[in-house]
Amino acid sequence: MTIAIESPDQPDVIALIAELDAYQDSLYPPESRHILDLAALKQSNVLSAVARDSAGNAIGCGAIVLYPEFGELKRMYVSPRGRGQGVAKRLLALLESKAIGLGCKLLKLETGPYQHEALALYASAGYERRGPFGDYTNDPLSVFMQKRIIAA
């Protein structure tokens, strides 16, 4: 398995993001889904990471939008065919490391209460619950978390 910063504008990554969208569509109504589209993921202030299996197929993705005061973790997803191999943990570690290298000291995220695996991953990685941030509002279908990150 390899994990690297890559453009999200690749057919297999686009398919992976579509898989993520379909999964989230099954869990949450549109007004409770706060996604970035492909154009937003291609902006210069976005780090996009892709995990690939030994055959080179995209099996996981994630991104961080870098703002002046913090980074926001977005679009974290591991396809069912890639689960149980530590892919999400490695994606998260790479994104955090790259954000630190760019001077980011705080990461925030929004996820949903029905994504138990994601909540467990973030908690195990040191993320703590917090209130809404940025343009988010209180929503019973949103869970907000953050983590202070520092260079090791």
From TrEMBL:
This is Acetyltransferase. Transmembrane segments: none annotated. Pfam families: Acetyltransf_1. PROSITE patterns: GNAT. Keywords: Acyltransferase, Transferase. SUPFAM superfamilies: Acyl-CoA N-acyltransferases (Nat) (SSF55729). InterPro entries: Acyl_CoA_acyltransferase (IPR016181), Bact_Acetyltransf (IPR050832), GNAT_dom (IPR000182). The keyword Acyltransferase applies. It comes from Pseudomonas sp. 2663. The keyword Acyltransferase applies. GO terms for molecular function: acyltransferase activity, transferring groups other than amino-acyl groups. Residues 3-150 form the N-acetyltransferase domain.
